[in-house]
């Protein structure tokens, strides 16, 4: 058995832009891992893990940033630091960070704290840099090369206090040697050796989770076919987590009326829905209500005009040929409901069923509305829904007097009812703010009126969020567990392959209006790199299926160059070894094709 004295290695790097992997994605921190002197394996599917924050200028407009030349180093207390040179969009020199470098710290290389920019020397661009701890000086030594080729050295005594940096001093010329690897189209930083236990924990977090084993009992005592059919398989995953799976047992050779021992085989059952399950339907949600299922989505097939609901006795029936669909809200010029019937969502609020949605009038400007089902009403009958109400602030003014509001969602935790939505100002102009997520508290008895001021939760500051000319934080949806409130949201280009899911989280019992208490994941939790052939996965929701599996429902497109319409997809949500939801477990990694067939020995007794 290996001990923690053995070492593993972590490579930090950026990537060269190539084909669909753009500069906005390439100029981020990537990691690869190896042990036993094996080759380096890229983590997170070779997608960036840590991105530079964008700047916001004096006009409230986001200025995209990236990073190059990263360096990973260890601290005396066994934690880590990362430095990198910040660049502007497309990798151009960044005038705002001239003479500065970025700094992060991390306890485990799983979560990261950004300390912003460190000033090395004003009025000179940093071309190359490296940081390490100097035990003699008891400080972090930063060696760097300026734009004129001159070499400098600074010392930083405290990573948490960037003002503890010394003045730059000239130093002798140096050459930074970068590792050679077999990885293609990467720009390597450096390699750091870490203890095996630390490396494996890091590896298990950032390796794409996958099915590594399928366990069934070796021998089972049964007396009937029903008892055999109740025997399940345990799917084991690369991090040590597990999930129970039904098995279709081949019991044709078993005579349950004759005692004896039989060897039986079976195939693990995997509930799958080939993409697309509903072509041209975006922003999908499913509701289980009064023993029926209802499907609601933005209908791109009808130019996003009207609100269409499907009803079925099962999930499969919602998407089978001949499905039942009704229009419960249509164009109404008198009410100024003309266009952009966007992102409708079912929500139970105070025991009443609502649909939260956005709609626009003759002048394009979608705004958040909600409408309630009448007592005893039928979801499929438009006359059973009350008149839609536009969401207002506590003072009676509309949620936004300028800009657009959309993608409203609702959650309740610890007795607190919250609305979360997306707001954007100046879209299509040089003063475009990008879409931003806001949160506010409401009274569930009157949820269309805020009882708190809106609080900004997140803006699209990472390179994967402000990409391909689309600057988005939108499509929020909550997942409330016993200890955490999660909010997934969407970022990137809403109708192209870079659309992806981000994640906010906060411990239960927190102040949900405290934006600083929410943790924002640095990398997408579902992207075209991890969605198993679905491109641009985004604007998701959750529901539980008939087997009580939590499912993630979202839309995507079919490719990079010819994406086709936004269409509905879904797959199972997994819970990892730490009890954290995994949203990117594709069909092939959920149940490995080579592990579907299982065998067991049964003893039939009467």
UniProtKB/TrEMBL annotation:
GO process terms (BP): carbohydrate metabolic process
Bacterial Ig-like domain residues: 233-268
Alphabetically ordered keywords of this record: Glycosidase, Hydrolase, Signal
Highest taxon of the lineage: Bacteria
InterPro entries listed in its UniProt record: Big_4 (IPR011081), Glyco_hydro_43 (IPR006710), Glyco_hydro_beta-prop_sf (IPR023296)
Membrane-spanning residues: none
Similarity field: Belongs to the glycosyl hydrolase 43 family.
Name of the protein: Alpha-arabinofuranosidase
GO molecular function term, any single one: hydrolase activity, hydrolyzing O-glycosyl compounds
Gene3D superfamilies attached to this UniProt entry: Glycosyl hydrolase domain, family 43
């Amino acid at each position: 058995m290996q001990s923690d004295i053995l070492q593993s290695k972590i490579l930090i790097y950026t990537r060269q832009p190539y084909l669909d992997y753009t500069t906005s994605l390439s100029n981020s921190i990537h990691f690869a891992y190896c042990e036993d002197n094996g080759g380096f394996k890229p983590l997170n599917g070779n997608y960036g893990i840590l991105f530079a924050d964008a700047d916001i200028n004096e006009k409230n407009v986001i200025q995209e940033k990236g990073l190059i030349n990263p360096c990973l180093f260890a601290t005396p207390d066994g934690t880590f630091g990362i430095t990198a040179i910040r660049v502007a969009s497309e990798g151009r020199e960044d005038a705002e960070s001239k003479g500065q470098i970025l700094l992060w710290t991390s306890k485990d290389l799983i979560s990261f704290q950004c300390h912003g920019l460190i000033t090395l020397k004003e009025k000179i661009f940093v071309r190359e840099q490296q940081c390490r701890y100097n035990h003699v000086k008891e400080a972090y030594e930063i060696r760097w090369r300026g734009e004129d080729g001159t070499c400098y050295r600074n010392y930083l005594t405290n990573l948490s206090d960037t003002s503890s940096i010394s003045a730059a001093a000239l130093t002798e010329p140096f050459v930074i040697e970068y590792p050679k690897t077999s990885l293609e189209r990467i720009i390597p930083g450096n390699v750091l050796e870490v203890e095996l236990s630390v490396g494996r924990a890091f590896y298990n977090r950032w390796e794409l989770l996958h099915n590594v084993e399928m366990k069934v009992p070796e021998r089972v005592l049964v007396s009937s076919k029903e008892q055999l059919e109740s025997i399940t398989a345990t799917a084991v995953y690369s991090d040590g987590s597990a999930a129970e799976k039904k098995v279709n047992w081949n019991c044709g050779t078993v005579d349950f009326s004759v005692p004896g021992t039989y060897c039986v085989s079976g195939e693990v059952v995997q509930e799958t829905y080939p993409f697309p399950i509903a072509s041209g339907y975006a922003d999908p949600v499913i509701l289980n209500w009064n023993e029926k299922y209802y499907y609601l989505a933005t209908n791109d097939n009808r130019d996003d005009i009207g609100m269409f609901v499907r009803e079925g006795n099962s999930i499969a029936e919602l998407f089978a040929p001949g499905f039942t669909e009704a229009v419960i809200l249509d164009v109404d010029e008198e009410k100024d409901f003309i266009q952009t019937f966007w992102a409708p969502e079912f929500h139970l609020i105070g025991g009443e069923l609502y649909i939260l949605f956005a709609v626009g009038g003759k002048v394009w400007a979608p705004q958040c509305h909600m409408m309630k089902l009448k007592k005893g009403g039928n979801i499929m009958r438009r006359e059973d829904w009350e008149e839609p109400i536009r969401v207002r602030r506590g003072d009676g003014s509309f949620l936004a007097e300028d800009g657009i509001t959309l993608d409203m969602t609702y959650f309740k935790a610890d007795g607190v009812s919250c609305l979360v939505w997306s707001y954007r100002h100046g879209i299509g102009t040089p003063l475009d703010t990008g879409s931003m997520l806001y949160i506010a508290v409401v009274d569930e008895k009157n949820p269309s009126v805020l009882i708190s001021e809106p609080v900004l939760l997140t803006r699209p500051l990472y390179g994967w969020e402000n990409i391909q000319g689309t600057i988005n934080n939108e499509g929020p949806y909550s997942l409330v567990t016993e200890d955490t409130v999660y909010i997934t949201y969407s970022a990137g280009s809403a109708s192209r392959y870079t659309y992806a899911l981000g994640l906010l989280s906060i411990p239960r019992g927190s102040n949900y209006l405290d934006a600083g208490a929410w943790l924002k994941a640095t990398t997408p939790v579902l992207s075209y790199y991890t969605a198993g052939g679905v491109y641009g996965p985004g604007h998701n929701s959750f529901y539980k299926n008939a087997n009580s599996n939590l499912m993630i429902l979202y839309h995507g497109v079919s490719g990079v160059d010819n994406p086709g319409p936004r269409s509905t997809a879904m797959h199972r949500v997994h819970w990892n070894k730490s009890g954290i939801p995994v949203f990117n477990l594709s069909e092939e990694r959920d149940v490995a094709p080579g592990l579907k067939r299982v065998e067991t020995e049964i003893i039939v007794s009467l």
